[in-house]
From TrEMBL:
GO terms for biological process: adenine catabolic process; hypoxanthine salvage; nucleotide metabolic process; purine ribonucleoside monophosphate biosynthetic process. GO terms for molecular function: adenine deaminase activity; zinc ion binding. InterPro entries: A/AMP_deam_AS, A_deaminase_dom, ADE, Ado/ade_deaminase, Metal_Hydrolase. The gene is AAH1. Transmembrane segments: none annotated. It comes from Lophiotrema nucula. This is Adenine deaminase. It is an enzyme of class 3 (hydrolase). It catalyses: adenine + H2O + H(+) = hypoxanthine + NH4(+). GO terms for cellular component: cytosol; nucleus. Binds 1 zinc ion per subunit.
């Protein structure tokens, strides 16, 4: 359709994609076999790629998804595994019209299994380099900390020699905070964020996905983040929504993720219209495309289907995404 073609051609930036969330069931089974990883025998979902995909369509919550997400990534061992995973994502992103991608990964989810941080980074960097050379996609890497793990574990990872090296060299642009939200409020990670800011890193955090709106204000006040990942619970808090609009904090909204993880009943319930009306800046993202049934263009199309946005509104959204990116001004000017 003409609108699908328009949305595909619109210069898009993606800011909320977990590379581990780009692991499709076929690749998961292929790597499990190649790397001799035993998948859970007591869960029928792991009997085949088809079963697993069906199970993904019945997620009941963020934690239900995260259970599969952490098992899935256990098949990633070698730098070449991480490279292939990220490359698969960049090929999809390119086909969808992404010009710039700021991608998350979870160092602790790999180092805790005995996979070296350098191995993970080496693989992802190789794919980023290829993405720029062969697809013209510029990239930034963001390390996410797992909020369900003890705070000292996060601090230890932050201070790890190879991690520090990647921060100080600029190989990593910023940090984020992900995983199970409700029991792990933002303020617990104040020290981590203060240290990251002191290192010159950009700051974002998942907040207001399942958690209440005061987790969003806590991320802004206690962690001093400049972006909020998800942030859909903002819509129920008029005063906070005004603040976020005034200070131009960008939300990285993930509509299909919100539906699949049952944060909302349908795409129509994602507060896209409320954000546009309040002047809240946001980008539209895929989150974990292999788990939630679509890449970025599917998310753009789903939003259009539900809200019938005008060309002007789509242009506003695309512009906010470019402005809210963590690339240099020269690259932003190129994309505008
Ligand atoms: N929320 C929290 N943690 C995550 C997500 C998410 O949407 N995706 C991957 N880890
Ligand atoms: Zn996420």
């Amino acid at each position: 359709s003409p609108i699908h073609d328009f949305l595909k051609l619109l210069p898009k930036c993606e800011h909320h994609i977990h590379l581990e969330g780009a692991l499709t069931p076929p690749v998961l089974f292929q790597l499990a076999q190649r790397n001799n990883i035993t998948l859970p025998q007591d869960d029928d979902a792991f009997q085949s790629s088809e079963f697993l995909l069906q199970r993904y369509q019945r997620f009941t919550s963020l934690d239900d998804f995260l259970h599969y997400y952490y098992i899935g990534m256990s098949v990633l061992i070698h730098a070449s595994d991480f490279e292939a995973l990220a490359w698969d994502y960049f090929e999809h992103a390119s086909a969808d019209g992404v010009h710039h991608a700021e991608v998350f990964f979870d160092p602790q989810a790999h180092t805790s299994r005995g996979v070296d941080y350098r191995t993970v980074l080496e693989g992802f960097q190789a794919a980023c380099k290829r993405a720029t050379q062969e697809l013209g996609i510029t990239t930034e890497l963001i390390t996410c900390y797992l909020r369900h793990l003890p705070v000292p574990d996060c601090l230890e990872t932050f201070h790890h020699e190879a991690v520090q090296e990647s921060y100080k060299s600029g190989e990593i642009r910023g940090i984020g905070l992900d995983s199970s939200e409700l029991d792990f409020p933002p303020h617990l990670f104040e020290e981590l964020y203060t240290k990251a800011k002191g290192t010159g890193l950009r700051l974002t955090s998942h907040a207001g996905e399942e958690g209440p709106s005061h987790y969003i204000s806590s991320a802004l006040d206690d962690l001093q983040v400049e972006r909020i990942d998800h942030g859909i619970k903002l819509a129920g808090d008029e005063a906070l929504m005004k603040r976020v609009a005034t200070q131009a904090t960008m939300l990285t909204v993930c509509p299909m993720s919100n539906v699949v993880l049952r944060c909302v009943k349908e795409i129509k319930d994602v507060p896209i219209r409320a954000f546009l009306d309040a002047g809240v800046k946001f980008s539209i993202n895929s989150d974990d495309p292999a788990y939630f049934g679509g890449y970025i263009l599917d998310n753009y199309c789903a939003v259009h289907e539900a809200f019938d946005l005008s060309i002007d509104e789509w242009t506003t959204i695309a512009r906010a995404g470019i402005e809210g990116s963590w690339c240099g001004q020269t690259r932003k000017d190129e994309m505008h």
